[in-house]
Amino acid sequence: MKKKIAIQGAEGSNHHKVARDFYGDNVNLQECLSFDTLVNSLLDKTSDKGIMAIENTIAGSIIPNYALIDANNLHISGEEYLNIHHHLMALPGQQIEDIKEVCSHPMALLQCKEFFKKHPHIKLVEDVDTAEVAKRISKNKLEGVAAIAPKLAADIFGLEVIEDEIQTMKANSTRFVIIQTEKPNNGIDQINKASLKFQLDHKRGSLAAILNVLSDCKMNLTKIQSLPVIETPWKYSFFVDVTFDDYKDYEKAVAIIKIMASEFKVLGAYKNGRK
């Protein structure tokens, strides 16, 4: 039976590529035009698992997604890193001179800003999703309009790539997490990374003390992100990613931090996606 996998965006998007890389082609894709819709599809059991972008090497953390995972008590069961490649595509037979308008997600437009400075005749229009634009161009036979999307979208929708690799920064990578409503059953021998959330009292040295515990327990801190606690002004939740070699070291760190911090939660313990 095919797994029902929710993605943000349409078929042909980077989320779709991650779904294919992580699960293969044996998936029933659930397209969601927003991350809120994606989460709701998990909560109402329309989808089994979801794929959510969480941070990018250029744009940084996608902070609202941390809050969505936390507020809805979702679990991270895995992760995938994807090198982002932006390609300009349109109906077959068109050249860059024929393009009058490019529609794409604001982040894609931002990441290709320098390319479009060389083509001032092109109007840039913000849209909801990169692959959705490619689909619309194909379906409505829109001449003079181009999309910025992965090559996967060109293959699916029969478009032609006019310009390859138009992103300004070539070393552009996004981290995606696999999320689900149930606690994952990852084997201990496979687990070498964890995502944790906790709150601390507003007093000097409280965060430093936690960081010292992580260091003493041989945890490698790969990410720390703070979010304000809405109902308590000037109080913050901390979201931390750690990697480790020995699961027993991780268990020890968790046991100590549970005592030191409040609102402690393990968002997920899983296999490090970095190759």
From TrEMBL:
Residues 4-181 form the Prephenate dehydratase domain. GO terms for biological process: L-phenylalanine biosynthetic process. Keywords: Amino-acid biosynthesis, Aromatic amino acid biosynthesis, Lyase, Phenylalanine biosynthesis. Its EC number is 4.2.1.51. InterPro entries: ACT-like_dom_sf (IPR045865), ACT_dom (IPR002912), Preph_deHydtase (IPR001086). Pfam families: PDT (PF00800). GO terms for cellular component: cytoplasm. It catalyses: prephenate + H(+) = 3-phenylpyruvate + CO2 + H2O. This is prephenate dehydratase. It comes from Tenacibaculum aiptasiae. The lineage of its organism: Bacteria, Pseudomonadati, Bacteroidota, Flavobacteriia, Flavobacteriales.
